[in-house]
Amino acid sequence: MFFQVQALWSVLFSLPFLPVAFSRAAAPAWYDVAGVAVWLVAVGGEAVADRQLARFRRRPDSGGTTCREGLWRYSRHPNYFFEWVHWFAYVFLALGSPYVWVALWGPVVMLLFLFKLTGIPYTEKRALASRGEDYRRYQQTTSVFVPWPPKEADRCEEQST
């Protein structure tokens, strides 16, 4: 059953590539350039976030604390955000296809997985268990997903009292 579910997910996440394969454009169009640009930004953003977190975790004073540096200052899950943005590259690449609507499946399903099935709920639960109050304060000041300027810690503490 485990492998059947994995096979189903593989088919589900491969659907957005079908319209790209059926694109009728003879030469690269503006949307192809946009798709490549979105892909580069997404992969670059995810790599930067992962590198920042790895560098933070290597520090001896990082145990039991939360990374609030770089992209992690603006989002609790910047790597997940850029993974989601990555799926929009295929939407752009599919714009020359009569089946472009199928490409929208990628970002929609990925958002569902990140917010409901895997990803954010599991990661947040683990972070609270391992970092406790430090992570709770981080949750109060930092966007869960979309990179956004952090809230002021003093204002969050006033609201919670």
Mind explaining what this structure looks like?
The model has no long low-confidence stretch (mean pLDDT 90). 22% of the residues are buried. The protein has helices spanning 2-14, 17-21, 30-58, 78-93, 100-103, 105-117, 120-141, 153-160. The protein contains 8 helices and no strands. The longest helix has 29 residues, at 30-58. It has 161 residues and is mostly helical. It has one domain. The chain is elongated and about 55 Å long.
Observed structural traits:
mainly alpha, elongated, 161 residues
Can you describe this structure in just a few lines?
The chain is mostly helical and 161 residues long. It is built from 8 helices and no strands. The model has no long low-confidence stretch (mean pLDDT 90).
Percentage of residues assigned to helices = 55-70%
- The helix-strand sequence is HHHHHHHH
Q: Main beta sheet: strand number and arrangement?
A: none
Categorize the overall geometry. elongated
**Beta strand %:** under 5%
Give unreliable regions as ranges: none
Q: How many H/I helical runs?
A: 8
Structural class: mainly alpha
Mean pLDDT: 90
Question: How far apart lie the N and C ends?
Answer: 48 Å
Number of domains: 1
How large, in whole angstroms, is the Cα Rg? Answer: 19 Å
How many strands in all?
0
